[in-house]
Design a protein that fits this description.
Elements: E1 12-16, H1 20-25, H2 31-52, E2 56-63, H3 71-94, E3 98-102, H4 110-123, E4 130-137, H5 139-155, H6 166-170, E5 183-186, E6 205-208, H7 218-230
Parallel strand pairs: 1-2, 1-5, 2-4, 3-4, 5-6
Bound molecules: 3-methylbut-3-enyl trihydrogen diphosphate (IPE) (2 copies) and magnesium ion (MG).
Length: about 250
């Protein structure tokens, strides 16, 4: 069955889930406690996304720069990712959700990598909400990888450099085949992209929210969708409908 396409509803929402540490610090708690509360916000967000009718939800869980954090925090985040998958996979699979991972897998420990790949494999043929989790992800590294793949094809004589166009680059990113995000939400009040989906975000609408990620909820998700519906996306063209201007 074909879905009715409503331009007021984004097809793909991507979220920079930021502010777990500050949430915890503000309460005199350790940063890991903030990440744990952040997992609850992920659960609420996935439910809200399913309800909203969007087709794709991308969640930035761990960046390629987040290795700079203390090993205890890194281990804690990896542990939370694997336990979240173990706990939710059956349920999400029953709900026909599909899981996909983007990011550099070779840098991940065997436990988290296995959990992520099991989730991908099991839900591969599902047709409901498509959830993309960015783990050890950095957009510049992703673009460099795509360019390396194209260069290899050129070196092997399989690709003419003249055929390297935008579609060829998109098709060699981790997100190949996925639509670009229509809406990108970042919590925590920071107004930056932090190396997230730089190529794919060329024309995304951006919504920055002051709340920390553990405080994110269904209502804020739907408010961001309402804000998106009020935006006028032009992609470089003129706004519709156009008002005729005369000199007189
Ligand atoms: C986002 O929260 C989670 C990850 C980056 C893994 P932070 O841990 O960045 O929280 P703040 O920004 O320090 O408050
Ligand atoms: C971006 O948040 C990465 C994730 C949310 C996973 P950061 O907290 O790492 O970003 P910066 O360091 O404030 O730019
Ligand atoms: Mg942060």
């Amino acid at each position: 069955m074909n879905k009715i396409v409503d331009p007021a509803i984004p097809r793909h929402v991507a979220i920079i889930m930021d502010g777990n540490g500050r949430w915890a610090l503000g309460r005199g708690l350790g940063r890991i406690f903030g990440h744990r509360k952040g997992v609850e916000a992920v659960r609420r967000t996935v439910d809200a996304a399913r309800e909203s009718g969007i087709s794709y939800l991308t969640l930035f869980a761990f960046s390629s720069e987040n290795w700079k954090r203390p090993p205890d925090e890194v281990d804690g985040i990896m542990e939370l990712i694997s336990s979240f998958i173990h706990r939710e996979l059956d349920n999400y699979h029953r709900q026909n959700m599909r899981f996909q991972v983007i990011g550099e897998r070779s840098g991940l420990g065997p436990k988290v990598l296995n959990a992520l790949e099991v989730a991908e494999e099991r839900t591969r043929n599902n047709t409901g909400l498509h959830v993309i989790v960015a783990v050890n992800y950095g957009a510049r590294g992703e673009i460099a990888g795509a360019l390396r793949a194209l260069a290899r094809q050129v070196a092997e004589g399989k690709l003419d450099p003249a055929d390297i166009d935008e579609a060829a680059i998109s098709g060699n990113l981790d997100t190949a085949g996925l639509p670009d995000p229509d809406l990108v939400i970042r919590t925590s009040g920071e107004q930056r992209l932090s190396n997230f989906l730089l190529w794919q975000m060329a024309y995304s609408e951006l919504v920055f929210l002051p709340c920390n990620w553990p405080d994110f909820n269904r209502e804020l998700f739907f408010e961001a969708l309402s804000e998106y519906a009020r935006r006028n996306r032009r992609f470089g063209a003129l706004a519709e409908p156009q008002v005729a201007l005369t000199d007189t």
